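Sequence in, structure out. Go.
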Amino acid sequence: MKITFLGANRNVTGSRYCLEACGKRIMIDCGMVQERDFLSRNWDACPIPAGSIDALVLTHAHIDHIGLVPKFVADGFRGRIFATRPTVALADVMLKDSAKIQAEDARYKRRRHRKEGRTGPHEIVPLYTDKDVEKAIELFRGVDYRVATEIVSGITVTWHDAGHILGSASLEIRVQEPDRERTILFSGDLGQHDKPLIHDPTYFRRADYVVMESTYGDRDHEARGNVEEQLITIVNDTTKRGGNLIIPVFAVERAQEMMYFLSRLVHKNRIPDVPIFLDSPMAYDVTNIFRRFTSWLDDETVRAVECDEPPLHFPGLTMTRTVDESKSINHHKKPCIIMAPAGMCNAGRIKHHLRSNIRRPESTILFVGFQAEGTLGRRLLAGEKEVRIHGRQYSVDAKIQQVFGLSGHADRTGLLQWLNHFEQPPRKVFLTHGEESSALALKRSIQTRFGFDVSVPSYGEVHEFNDQGPSLVDAGQPNAVAVKRDAISDTPESEATGDAATESVKVDEIFPVAAEDPDLEFLDSATRRPISFLHEDPWRVLRIQSDLIQGIEIMTRALEGRHRSVAVFGSARLPESDPSYQLAHQTCQRLGERGFAIITGGGPGIMEASNRGARDAGSPSIGLNIELPHEQTINPYCDASYTCRYFFVRKMMFAKYARGFLIFPGGFGTFDEFFESLTLIQTGKLAQFPVVLVGSEFWRPIVDWLQTTVLEKGCIDSQDVQRFRVMDDPEEIARWLDQIIDGQSASTKT
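Output:
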């Protein structure tokens, strides 16, 4: 068993590690490097061949953790990519945006070089293209927090909330080899406590080895007062001068956090009534993902939404998508607030807004996040009076300011408190994801305070796990806990004397369940009277209507100009190796070749196989999912997808937009679809509606029972039963549905 450190080693960005165990290789993160001195690593081939990696697991969706995934796939990786469900959704948006930014930057740089009559040392091409991103997204699989997942034989990964961004995770990796068992904990990026929108980070009791971030390992966050009070002062000061407030943000989390704080100030009338722009197609899409995954957000955010003060939508906010909309912002004559990626000013639209404002003394450039060494943001914060943007030198006349307390990373005290919860020392702690000075400072702090064995690996360093003995982690005992901590004093003096400050910790619960969802209440008949929710939650009716309207819009657009579509049902638990999975894939590929759109529940198993078949045939592939705490994410083969809150809304979409049903073998859910179809046929709700039961070995006994028992008792009639066709051959199924549905369309037209 060994680990190779391939990124974010004695620097902040480019997180990437290779763990070899059980005869397999798994990669943890695959991030893009953003520091100028190490940019060449983005272009270099991975030191460990991509084709030799069996699986890739991701901690969260920031580009310095996922930004090289499409290149990794293009270089030969063919395994599956595992991440939390919000991370999968965010990665889709962020990687597509990354490919777009790279293409735009490459075109701009080529034009500039032609204009200047020079040639760079390397060919100017993007790292990867939209097509590379599409191939990568197909490999993603979504998981939930606290669900152990065996990603390859002998290696099980559990994702725990890291409190950094939506869907961020610490990884608890359990390795079971014939001669020993070890648990390796990857902290991921750890967040602060009491941050807006998201939950607090998870603590752990034990680990054999810990790979831990050290971004702020040498310092604590500066306490400059309440974030809202800082923003009030800066916004008012800038608008009084007649300038614009330019805020570089990360499209994930920091943009939404700023919207959260500005929303509160707008609702309280604490800042002037000025236009607020979020200039980023990606941030727009990310914000919608936040709205979609409300069950993953903290209780305070949910309460704000219920009080009709949604933190991600408020008066005065404009979210721009197109280039023309972005350009028009700089023609705005009156003071305004402009937020745009990238957060370190190293790419994207923020550079254009800086060009328009950096020489204006009345404007303010406000930094709200970490600025890595060598980035434009770091140079501006360091006080440089002249900087280069898009190949031209600009004097820095705008006011440069920074808001403190917004960092998405735990500071030195927070990192030490995270380690302080361990009940016994790990065998070794590896510090990564921090500048060399930060990592080395944190190493000294940990050794002084806890006496742990600590290493700060260099890029390319390999560590072999040769120790013997039992694991420090008891697999039968809970290891992760959610905690509420009180602030503690942690001064350099306490380290100097070797006295470890103790942390006041209250354990809320082990493996906390998701926050109670009022929209699931109606499933439990023992809890409330059926009508009570109307009095206690008047917004539910609006949410139902919104669910339905959004579903209608998405389905109508996806099926525009098409009358041939079928809905597919079947077990979500069937793996790719199962014959029914293969049958579903082949059947829907044949249907797709005949022009049928395929509509599924969007999850794994039969649904994945069906959407995959439609995509292989170049036909529309649509997934309708349910937002539940442990529901699988939309599978990566859906061209159009929709996640709703209510089962009956999805049922309505199936019945309204499909012209026939295919039901494959499965469990109780499959029987549910079968009998619901029969009920709809009996009541005339599905007029002339064909239903194919695929797989005679599974379905024939059930149909025989209907004909010999239920039919004889008069509960159904022969015409109802005849509407079900038991079939096995994909080509025969496609041909029969083609004839039936074409005949229906012809009769409708006449």
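Check: The first strand starts at residue 2 and ends at 5. The radius of gyration is 28 Å.
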